[in-house]
Amino acid sequence: VLLCLCCCSSWLGGLACIFSTSLLFQILVRPCSNGGGLFFCPQSPNAPSILSSKDRTAYHFQPPKNWINDPCGPMYYNGIYHEFYQYNPDGSFNPNTSYNIVWGHSVSTDLVNWITLEPAIEPDTPNDIKGCWSGSATIVSGDQPVIIYTGVIDIEKHQVQNIALPKNRSDPYLREWTKAGNNPVIQSGVPGLNSGQFRDPTTGWIGPDGLWRIAVGAQLNGYGAALLYKSEDFLNWTRVDHPLYSSNASIMFECLDFFAVLPGSNNGLDMSSAIPNGAKHVLKMGMNFGEDVYVIGVYDLKRDAFVPDTDDSRLWPRIDYGNFYASKTFFDSKHGRRIIWAWTTETDSSSDDIAKGWAGIYSFPRTIWLDNDGKRLLQWPVEEIESLRRNEINHQELELKKGDLFEIKGIDTLQADIEIDFELTSIDDADPFNPSWLFDTEKHCQEADASVHGGIGPFGLVILASDNMEEHTVVHFRVYKSQKNYMILMCSDLRRSSLTPGLDTPAYGGFFEFDLEKERKISLRTLIDRSAVESFGGGGRVCIMARVYPVSLVDDDHQPHVYAFNNGSATVRVPHLRAWSMRRAQVSA
Ligand SMILES: *[C@@H]1O[C@H](CO)[C@@H](O)[C@H](O)[C@H]1NC(C)=O
Ligand SMILES: *[C@@H]1O[C@H](CO)[C@@H](O)[C@H](O)[C@H]1NC(C)=O
Ligand SMILES: *[C@@H]1O[C@H](CO)[C@@H](O)[C@H](O)[C@H]1NC(C)=O
Ligand SMILES: *[C@@H]1O[C@H](CO)[C@@H](O)[C@H](O)[C@H]1NC(C)=O
Ligand SMILES: *[C@@H]1O[C@H](CO)[C@@H](O)[C@H](O)[C@H]1NC(C)=O
């Protein structure tokens, strides 16, 4: 296939298209369905309008108006959570050549309700005059927040790294930021480095020698690299002569994230302090300009290099298998946890975005930690989300036979949080697993969709369904027996989510391994927020963020339906189903 990858972390590279016919890209890149607009095709400018004020999400983060992309520099400082974001001050369109993307800024005390402030960093020096792109915040010496971000210096999009510091650390909101006098603190000038693909510096971490380190995403000799830099004072940076990691799995790594985790502990680790023995490290890479992939490994302190547990990039899991990119984590010292969130695009047309006046939301903040077996990250919405829950309904001991559809009533089905456990009555009926499915889960989710009866599954939820089911989104599981264990497929199938033509409506999917002999229950949690459907399977082993725009939402009186269903031969039990309506959070004031 010939694909046009329309870049970039800061999305400004929309004009730079990369063509590839390599096998790798065939495996990793999903072509657009319907010519719609996720990452690899530009949004179609003239699709029919599907405009509805009901599409605007009620508790997922977004500023009051305009275009956003990457989350930047999240941090917790003096009792306040800060979120910065790539923001187009001029409107709700992808800021193609307007060059003036800025760091928007919002603050919160609970990660649920947000106050919007003036932008924190804007292009006004020669080191960022063509845009203030993504970056990170680090709290140095316990009390000095420092932002390091990418500046674009000319229309060829040459990139350098700059520092900004709060003007007044006593201002609880840290409203104003001052750029360091010695910017740019890092310039390209490295043999083999493409200075137009050199961006998104990570949060700093401290090595055993007491020096700070950061990694910068880059294209080095044609392949993805995490360039490593060291500093004593966080201002004067020296490049380490080898990258932290590099791989031909992608032509560029952007939006890197590097952090330590302890197997089986859901406490986060602070990268500004010594990392305990037994910890593993995670390198998260934005690959192929649209996929957030992670690899677990060890940080070899002697070589100052990251060594992944597997180099086979085809097996690297995704943080989220849906519409989720440029994710960023931070250590939340208030609760001792690590939090992640990401940018989720609109998948309607760019003309719809201009009419709506807004484009882009963030996934709900999630706690992220390493599973007991050390092989997989788990994610779960931060518990603060529970402050939005109201009108709990619950059901116990339901039985879903093949073909059953159970309607979940009594909640606001446009704004809901649903937690459901599916218990298998027998595991003998599982169909055999074919490992080649791992390389194209979306195709498998299309072929083995909710109407294809299996031994165990499909079972799951039907969401945002119109009265006659013409429109609906299905989140479902299927259970397979592999040689060693059981493999669970989770799909979020958007293909019938809307009657509007021209939307990007794939069937997202991911697999996870599961010890069904020990644990017979597979859990599903889904956050429904108007045009957002965010699902967590198997306790957060596979997560899928999705956007949908059902036509039936346009009708004011219409409440869509939500159902639990089973279309597998084996009966599944639902020992527990709990659901809530969700209040509107303060995300736009
Ligand atoms: C940038 O995008 C805006 C909104 O879609 C459009 O009006 C403008 O023509 C675009 N500029 C270029 C140079 O493509
Ligand atoms: C810094 O912020 C504090 C708290 O808002 C304020 O009292 C103080 O006057 C500010 N200092 C300067 C120099 O603006
Ligand atoms: C920056 O750090 C390097 C390496 O540690 C050192 O040689 C150099 O003198 C420092 N420069 C400044 C201006 O401090
Ligand atoms: C990519 O790297 C892997 C191992 O790291 C190697 O086996 C493979 O040949 C490389 N492919 C290309 C196209 O260089
Ligand atoms: C279950 O399968 C039947 C028959 O294939 C199909 O008509 C129905 O739509 C399926 N249920 C769901 C929720 O997809």
TrEMBL record:
Keyword annotations for this protein?
A: Disulfide bond, Glycoprotein, Glycosidase, Hydrolase, Signal
Where is the Glycosyl hydrolase family 32 N-terminal domain positioned along the sequence? Answer: 60-381
> Which BP terms from GO are recorded?
carbohydrate metabolic process
Drop me one GO molecular function for this one: hydrolase activity, hydrolyzing O-glycosyl compounds
Give one Pfam family.
Glyco_hydro_32N
Write down the InterPro entries for this protein, in alphabetical order. Answer: ConA-like_dom_sf, Fructan_Metab_Enzymes, Glyco_hydro_32, Glyco_hydro_32_C, Glyco_hydro_32_N, Glyco_hydro_beta-prop_sf
**Segments forming domain Glycosyl hydrolase family 32 C-terminal:** 384-581
Signal sequence span is 1-16
Q: Which family does it belong to?
A: Belongs to the glycosyl hydrolase 32 family.
Q: What is this protein called?
A: Glycosyl hydrolase family 32 N-terminal domain-containing protein
Please name the source species: Aegilops tauschii subsp. strangulata
> Species lineage, top-down?
Eukaryota, Viridiplantae, Streptophyta, Embryophyta, Tracheophyta
